[in-house]
Amino acid sequence: MVVEVNSKISPSSARAHTRKANQNSSFQLPPEVLNKLLVLLSVGILAWGYQAIQPPPPKICGSLGGPPITAPRIKLSDGRNLAYKEEGVPKEGANYKIVSVHGFDSCRHDTIAKFLSPELVEELGLYIVSFDRPGYGESDPNPKRTVKSMALDIEELADQLGLGSKLYVVGYSMGGEVLWSVLKYIPHRIAGAALLAPVANYWWTGFPANLSKEAYKKQLWNDQLAVGVAHYAPWLTYWWNTQKWFSSCSAVAHNPGVFSTKDRELVMMPHWQSRKTYVVPT
């Protein structure tokens, strides 16, 4: 006698059976392989990040593939070349021999001479020499640059040009930092020094903390970020100044918003217009 059993499978049981079958048949990486892949991915991300924050190698003027040499240059004692520019009256008959130190994103052409009338220069007997700081313009970079080395570069420039035992030094913007170096390391060579719109270090301990904080907050927000990156993470400075995600510092972007209306009218707009004659577009 044959008995037929008509068993029915519920939909929920069928779905559970299907899920179990799929789980058993799904592909899974062994843990050791997955760990190796994660390590490789992490190394790749770190390598990409490291490359992104590294500045490209400098193109040395006069070298293969580098820009041509157009300025007079002196050879310093360590073998580097320093480009310079002379303006004003001849140094032999000058009443004042002035070394002009340019700031950030500038070069030997950005000198105080462009803000002085020829008549005033002649009347006062001003001789002005400016130079490309190491790594700027046509001067060789100095991978061993220190605060002291900048002062010694100026002293050597003065000696090779025969400017005598005493100099006047003027530093504009970030060129002002060089004046502190000059006053500290070669004070015996300095007849006078002037700071023009110098950039301050908001973390100098000699400044009252409340004054530093107030001045820092008066900057545009993008400049606060740029200065903060340079102070707290200097190794990110190149990346920050070249990235396109956020607004870079006003000096890099040539943002006139940091100047008053009168400054823009009298100084900065004519200054930036004149830069078009010697700045290579990037």
TrEMBL record:
Gene3D superfamilies from the xrefs? alpha/beta hydrolase (3.40.50.1820)
Answer yes or no on keyword Disulfide bond. no
Keywords, A to Z?
Hydrolase
Q: Does the keyword ATP-binding apply?
A: no
| Domain AB hydrolase-1: residue ranges | 101-226
Q: What spans are recorded as compositionally biased (Polar residues)?
A: 7-23
Tell me the segments the record calls region Disordered. 1-23
Query: Which GO molecular-function terms appear in the entry?
Result: hydrolase activity
What is the name of this protein?
A: Alpha/beta hydrolase fold
